[in-house]
Hints:
The complex is a heterotrimer.
Chain A: H1 13-31, E1 63-64, E2 70-79, E3 82-87, E4 90-93, E5 97-103, E6 108-114, E7 124-128, E8 133-138, E9 142-147, E10 157-162, E11 203-204, E12 210-219, E13 222-227, E14 230-233, E15 237-243, E16 248-254, E17 264-268, E18 273-278, E19 282-287, E20 297-302, H2 316-323, H3 326-350, H4 389-417
Parallel strand pairs in A: 1-4, 2-5, 4-10, 11-14, 12-15, 14-20
Antiparallel strand pairs in A: 2-3, 5-8, 6-7, 6-9, 9-10, 12-13, 15-18, 16-17, 16-19, 19-20
Chain B: H1 10-47, E1 81-92, E2 95-105, E3 112-121, E4 126-127, E5 131-132, E6 141-150, E7 156-167, E8 171-180, E9 186-187
Parallel strand pairs in B: 1-9
Antiparallel strand pairs in B: 1-2, 2-6, 3-4, 3-5, 3-7, 7-8
Chain C: H1 3-6, H2 8-40, H3 51-86, H4 93-115, H5 141-171, H6 179-211, H7 219-230, H8 232-247, H9 249-253, H10 260-273, H11 290-302, H12 304-324, H13 342-365, H14 370-373, H15 378-407, H16 414-440, H17 467-497, H18 528-552, H19 564-567
Amino acid sequence: xxxxxxxxxxxxxxxxxxxxxxxxxxxxxxxxxxxxxxxxxxxxxxxxxxxxxxxxxxxxxxxxxxxxxxxxxxxxxxxxxxxxxxxxxxxxxxxxxxxxxxxxxxxxxxxxxxxxxxxxxxxxxxxxxxxxxxxxxxxxxxxxxxxxxxxxxxxxxxxxxxxxxxxxxxxxxxxxxxxxxxxxxxxxxxxxxxxxxxxxxxxxxxxxxxxxxxxxxxxxxxxxxxxxxxxxxxxxxxxxxxxxxxxxxxxxxxxxxxxxxxxxxxxxxxxxxxxxxxxxxxxxxxxxxxxxxxxxxxxxxxxxxxxxxxxxxxxxxxxxxxxxxxxxxxxxxxxxxxxxxxxxxxxxxxxxxxxxxxxxxxxxxxxxxxxxxxxxxxxxxxxxxxxxxxxxxxxxxxxxxxxxxxxxxxxxxxxxxxxxxxx
Amino acid sequence: xxxxxxxxxxxxxxxxxxxxxxxxxxxxxxxxxxxxxxxxxxxxxxxxxxxxxxxxxxxxxxxxxxxxxxxxxxxxxxxxxxxxxxxxxxxxxxxxxxxxxxxxxxxxxxxxxxxxxxxxxxxxxxxxxxxxxxxxxxxxxxxxxxxxxxxxxxxxxxxxxxxxxxxxxxxxxxxxxxxxxxxxxxxx
Amino acid sequence: xxxxxxxxxxxxxxxxxxxxxxxxxxxxxxxxxxxxxxxxxxxxxxxxxxxxxxxxxxxxxxxxxxxxxxxxxxxxxxxxxxxxxxxxxxxxxxxxxxxxxxxxxxxxxxxxxxxxxxxxxxxxxxxxxxxxxxxxxxxxxxxxxxxxxxxxxxxxxxxxxxxxxxxxxxxxxxxxxxxxxxxxxxxxxxxxxxxxxxxxxxxxxxxxxxxxxxxxxxxxxxxxxxxxxxxxxxxxxxxxxxxxxxxxxxxxxxxxxxxxxxxxxxxxxxxxxxxxxxxxxxxxxxxxxxxxxxxxxxxxxxxxxxxxxxxxxxxxxxxxxxxxxxxxxxxxxxxxxxxxxxxxxxxxxxxxxxxxxxxxxxxxxxxxxxxxxxxxxxxxxxxxxxxxxxxxxxxxxxxxxxxxxxxxxxxxxxxxxxxxxxxxxxxxxxxxxxxxxxxxxxxxxxxxxxxxxxxxxxxxxxxxxxxxxxxxxxxxxxxxxxxxxxxxxxxxxxxxxxxxxxxxxxxxxxxxxxxxxxxxxxxxxxxxxxxxxxxxxxxxxxxxxxxxxxxxxxxxxxxxxxxxxxxxx
Lengths: 423, 188, 569
C-alpha cells in the first residue's frame, strides 16, 4: 500500500480539507484507545495542595516500566517553566528494580518525602549538576514520593511505584498496537502551516527493517515535504532520512514520553542522510524548522495498527483523483455562471425605471445625453468678499493635533524605549 | 441630495435620515476610536506600567526587569562581584555559539561558588549547559567562561545563574537569578 | 454637453482603463479580505489557503491594487483631464491604445504568475515575491516582464498627453497651460523620472537573473533602485487624487477653487522633491551612508509643505462652496456641505483620512523614530490611509461622478452609493488604528501568522488595548472594507449595464473658473523643463554618490570591484 505519490503540488487546498475531514472521523473513532498506564492515586502529591508547586509534567499517567531490571529517571528535564522536572514524573517498576537518576541539567537533588514502611531510601540531598547520576534499588513495594529541594516550589516532584498491577491496558508487549492519531499536527492549527501532502493516510511500512523517508520532496508549494509525510513502522525499524533538496533539518516535535529520538537539527543539503532506529512504540511527530510555516511536517507511527494495518484514511486517494482539476472546474463554473448572470443583470438594469426622472423623458432614449443642471449658488461670493475663517480654524486644530502627537510620540515612545537598531 | 433633487418626497426624507445616521457613524466611530487610543496612550504615560499592566505576559524589553550587558553584575544581590566581561554570539557554518566570560571576585568572607545554568533563547528554545567556578576561598578570584551551542538563528535571552555561598556548619545559601540579556552582538 | 457626446473616442479609452482597473480592484479586494482574516486568525481554517499561500494572496493584493488598479485608473482619469481641459481630442489615439494594451498584457502576465501560487498548473512559474519585488526573493521571468510592460505601457500613454499638449501649444501660443493639463504633465514628468529606477532594476537585473543569465544580483543595489521608484510611486497615486481634490471637489461642494497658482506651486514642489526621498525606506539598510539617508529625510519633510498647502487650499475651496450655499460660522459651514452626494463625500472623507495618514507618514520619515515602527504592521496601517483611502476612495468618488459622463448612463443604486464612502471610512478606521497600535507593540508586517511562536501574543507589548482586540479590529475593519468595496462594484456594474441616454444624468461636468486665476502667477511656474532639470539635479545629489559606490563595489557581487565580473574573477 504505497502512497508515495509526490505529485501533491497539484492538490488543491480544498481537496486536502475534504480528505482530512474524511479521515478525521476515522481518527476520532480510535482516539480513545490511547493511554498506556493505569491511574494511580498519589494522595494529591502532584497537585499544588501538597508542599511545593503543582507538577506540570504529570499528566495523570504513571509510566509503566515493569519487567525491566534498570529504569532511568532524568533529573531536571524541561518542565514546570524551566528545567525543573523529573522525567518521567511517575514511574511504575517491579520490586528489585534499580532506578538510575540521571542529572540532565544543573543544581538539582533528590529528597525523599514519603516511602513505605520498612523501606530505606535516603535519596541524594547533595545538589549536583548535569552529568551526575545516582541509583537506588527499590525492594519494598509501595509508593515513594520525592522532590528536588531547590525547585520544589516550581513543582519538581516525582514518584516511584514499586510493584502492584502493571496491566493498565497497555496491550501485549510483543505486538503493541498504536493508533495513528496525529491530533491537529498536520493542520495549520498546530505550529506552522498545513501539510498539503498529508492526505490523511499513513503509509504502512511495518515488517521492514529499514524504511526511507525523503526530506524535501516536492510539496507545499516547493520542495517542502517529507515523503511520505506519515509512515507506520514496526518497533526496531531503522528509518533513513534522505535529503533530496536543500536546507532542511529534522526537528522532533513530540514523541512518546520514554523515547529518546533527538532528530537532526543541523541544516543539511541534498545528498545528506541520517537514520534513527525507533524502538519505543508510539506516535512521533517531527518537522523541518526552516520550512515549518510551509507545512513541512511529518510523523512516524511505531507499532502495529489496531485492527489490521494501515486501514485508516482510506478515502485519500479517491479524493485526490479529481482534486487537481478543481481549479479549472471552478474557473469554468464561474465563467458559465457569469455568462448566464450577465444578460439577466443587463436586462434588469436596462428595464429599470430611471431614478429621480426629473426633467428626463421617462424611459425614452434620447440621442443627446443631458447633464444635471448647473449648481446655482444661493449667494455668489467673489474672491475679495471671501474670508476663509472656517478653514483657518480647521487648519489650526490639525496643526495642534500634529504638534501634540509628534511631541507625545517623540518624548514618550521614542525617548522611553531607545532605538533598537543603532546606538 | 443631488443638485437635481428639488421635490422632497417620502423617499427623499428616508434618504436624508440615512445620510445623517451615516455621517454620524462615519465621523463618530473614528473619533471615538482615535479618542480612546489617545486617552489610553496618555493614561499609560501618566500612570504607566503599574497596576494598569494587566497582562502578566508582558515580556517587553522595556518594561520588565533591567537587562544585563557586558560590564554588569550578574547577581547584584550578593556582595561579591560577578562581572560579565564578554558575551558574543558567533554565527558559524557549523552552528551558532554563545560564548561568555564572567569575572568572579569573592570579596566576601566565606567560600563562594558561581554556577551558570540553562540559557533560554529569544525564540524560547532552552539550551542546556553550564559552568562553575568551583569553590572559591574568601578573597580568591576566577574567570569563568562558558559556551552554549544555540539553534541556528537564535540569540540568548536569559540565563539561569546561581551563586552558592557556603555557610558555616556545612550549609549553603543560594542566590538564584534569571539574568536577562540586553542585545548581544552576533559575529560572523 | 456630456463628455461622451463630445469626445466619444476618448470616453471609450477612459472606459476601458476604468474597466480593467475595476476588475483588478475586485480581485485585489477579495485577496485583502482573505488576508485580513487569515492573518488575524479568524476563520483561518475555513479559508482555502495555507500559510505559504498567504504570501501569494499578499502579492496579489499588493500588485493588483497598488500597481494595476492605480495605474489603469490614473491613466484613464488623465485622458479625461487632458481632453477636457485642453478641450480637444487626443492627438494620436493609437499611441494611447498601444500603451493601454501593453499595460493589459503586462497585467495579465503578472496576474498569471501570481495566481500560479494557487494553481501550479497555470503557465509560467510562481511569483510570491510581494509587490516590493526586489532580491533576494525571485519570481518567474514572466512576472518581471509583466511588471516592466505595465510601467512602459504607462509611459506610452503618458507620451500621448505630451503629444496632445504639443498640438494644443502650437494652436495656442502664449496661453497659460490649463490647470488640469499642467497637473497631468507635472505628474508624468515626476513619473518618468522615478519609474526609470524600477525599469532599470527589472530589465537590467531581475529579468536576466530570473532567466539564469546572471547568477546573482546585488540586493542592496536592486533594493535601492526599487525604492528610488517605490516612494515616488506613492506620489504618482497621490497627485491624481490632488487633481480631483483641486479641480472637481470644490465644484461638487458648490464653490470654486481658491487659488490656481497655489495648486501649480504644489505640483512643482512634487516634481522637485518626490524622487530624491527613496532612502527613507532604507533607514535600516547597511551600506548607505547616514548622510544620504539624512538628505532623503529632509527632502521628505519638505514634501510636507505642498501637502499642507493642499490641505489649506482644498478646505478653503470647500468652505467657499459651503458659504455660497448660505452657511455661516466657524464650523457650521461643514454641515452645509453635500455629504449625501457620494462623489463629494468619498473625496472629502478621503482627504480627511489623508490628514491622519500624513501624521503616521511623518513618523515613518523621521530617521530615528522610524526604528520604532520599521517593518511593523504600522507601515501597512499607514499606507492603507494613503493609497488605500486617499487614492482609492478618491477614485471611487471620481467614478461616481465621471462614469455617468463617460458612459452617458445614470448612476444606479444611489442609496448604496451614498452609504458606501462612510462604510469604507469606518472599516478603514478600525483596521488602520489597530494596525498602527499593533505596530507600536512590535507586531510584524508581511507575516501570515504573526503569533506563530508558542508564546502567542506574549512577546508583544501593546501600550493601549490588547493584541487580541487589535486582531479583532483588523478582521472587522477588513471585512467592512470588503463590504464597502462590494457596494462600490455593485453600483458600478449596475451603472455600466444600464441603458444610456435614459433621462437626465445626476451629475454635471462643468468646472467653474478658480477664484484666483493663473494670470496672478509668474509664468515660470508653467515651465516644466526648468523644474524637470532641477529635479534631475536634486536626484543626482541624493543618489549619485551612493549609487556610484554600490556600482563601483561590484554591480553583481558586492566586494568584487567594478570590473570583476568582466574579468571573470
